[in-house]
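Thread: "does anyone have the structure for this chain?"

Original post by V.I.:
We have the sequence but no experimental structure in hand. Need at least a predicted one for the grant figures.
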Amino acid sequence: MLSPIKPQDEKQRLKRLEETGLLDSEDEERFDRITRLAKRLFNVPIALVSLIDNDRQWFKSCFGLTVRETSRDISFCGHTILGDQPFVVKDASLDPRFADNPLVAGDPHIRFYAGHPLSLSDGTNVGTLCVIDTQPRRFSQEDLRFLNDLALLAESGLMIPTAMPKGIAPYPIWLTCCVPICASRMCLRGLVAMSLCYFFTVLAAKKQKTHSSALRAWLSDLIGLIAIPTPFHLAKGLQTARPPRTAV
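Reply from O.Q.:
Generated one for you, tokens below.
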């Protein structure tokens, strides 16, 4: 069995993962709707949004498994985060890297795996969107494009903070629900504008300037979803947004 190696930026990667606040958090519809779609679209028994922690993979969204985490050293997703492209195993029982893997030889008897890395706005891979079958199968170019599209939606969910800094009013729930379906750049530009109005209104009303760094970090992740440069990239502390992943 080939255990996944750890990337060179592992320390920074774990720090960025922790900053999302998603590990060990409650189920959220923004991720569950994506795994439900993936399960139905690819007609597979298992679909997951997996976050790769130091020594485990933890499932933020899980359809088809009774466990919420497994060891990282036997995970398929640990291999997926090492690259920027989908990682596909058509028949794990015939693949020398996985044939004697406990997840292949035993429950859930994985045969087919297709995973897409999920990254933050700075390109850090923190997890995967994956689909799993107990039967070997092919995965076409069209399937890869569909998986890529769903991964982009899952990545947009990673940009929303699970918990706001103390003293900041909860982010409007209707905006939270809109982010995963705002796939067009125009919609996302509007979302940035609404976000700015909301945060600056709250900060001005409460006179809480101490949260400006948290605001800049949040906006940096959000702006990372937009393909074109914006004036906010020039603001101090904002990271340059990476180009969006193109379809496979």
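V.I.: this helps a lot. The longest strand covers residues 125-133.
O.Q.: and The mean pLDDT is 77.
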